[in-house]
């Protein structure tokens, strides 16, 4: 499984990448949307984990830009990640096509792993309850 993590906080990105690392997973980290776009010009990873607040282009703007280039299907997941727990923002994500959203809290790794492993029903994610 190829995973792309787009997170500008280097310490948090390292935490996420190391926590998700396991055999069979290749994880690439990018500190901003622009560098991730260059990488994605010839790649189609199974998972995109996108921080909502990025320098330059926001996570949702990045998602909208790549949405048509990378066909999001049951085999490709785009997960928006944010420290904010804002219902209006989540509704905006849903309206724009984001299916999975996780809050950067003490359960973020468990939430991400549940999505990666197809166990969303075990967690309380938007769009799954």
Please list the strands of the largest sheet in the order they lie side by side: 2-1-3-4-5
Task: Specify the CATH architecture.
Answer: 3-Layer(aba) Sandwich
- The proportion of residues forming helix, as a percent range, comes to 25-40%
Distance between the first and last residues' Cα: 26 Å
In the CATH scheme, the class would be Alpha Beta
Strand content: 15-25%
Q: Give helix and strand order, one letter per element, not per position.
A: EHEHEHEHEH
Tally of helical segments: 5
Could you give the count of β-strands? 5
* Major β-sheet annotation: 5 strands, parallel
Shape: globular
- CA radius of gyration is 13 Å
What's the rounded overall pLDDT mean?
84
Domain unit count:
1
Tell me the structural class. Answer: alpha/beta
Give me the CATH superfamily. Answer: Response regulator
CATH names the topology as Rossmann fold
Q: Provide the low-confidence segments as ranges.
A: 125-129
Protein architecture, described:
With 129 residues, this protein is an alpha/beta fold. The protein has a single domain (2-122), classed as 3-Layer(aba) Sandwich (Rossmann fold). The protein has five helices and five strands, in the order βαβαβαβαβα. The protein has a five-stranded parallel sheet, sandwiched between helices. β3 (47-51), α3 (59-67) and β4 form a beta-alpha-beta unit. The chain is globular, with a radius of gyration of 13 Å. The model is unreliable at 125-129 (pLDDT under 50).
Task: Report a brief summary of the structure.
This protein has 129 residues and is of the alpha/beta class. It has one domain: Rossmann fold (3-Layer(aba) Sandwich), CATH 3.40.50. Helices cover 36% and strands 19% of the residues.
């Amino acid at each position: 499984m190829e995973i792309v993590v787009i997170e500008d906080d280097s310490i948090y990105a390292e935490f996420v990448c190391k926590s998700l690392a396991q055999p069979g997973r290749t994880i690439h980290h990018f500190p901003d949307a622009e560098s991730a776009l260059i990488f994605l010009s010839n790649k189609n990873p199974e998972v995109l984990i996108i921080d909502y607040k990025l320098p330059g282009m926001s996570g949702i703007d990045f998602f909208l830009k790549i949405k048509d280039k990378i066909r999001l299907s049951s085999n490709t997941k785009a997960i928006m990640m944010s420290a904010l727990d804002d219902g209006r923002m989540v509704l905006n994500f849903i309206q724009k096509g984001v299916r999975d959203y996780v809050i950067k809290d003490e359960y973020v790794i468990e939430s991400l792993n549940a999505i990666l492993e197809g166990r969303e029903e075990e967690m309380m994610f938007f769009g799954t309850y």
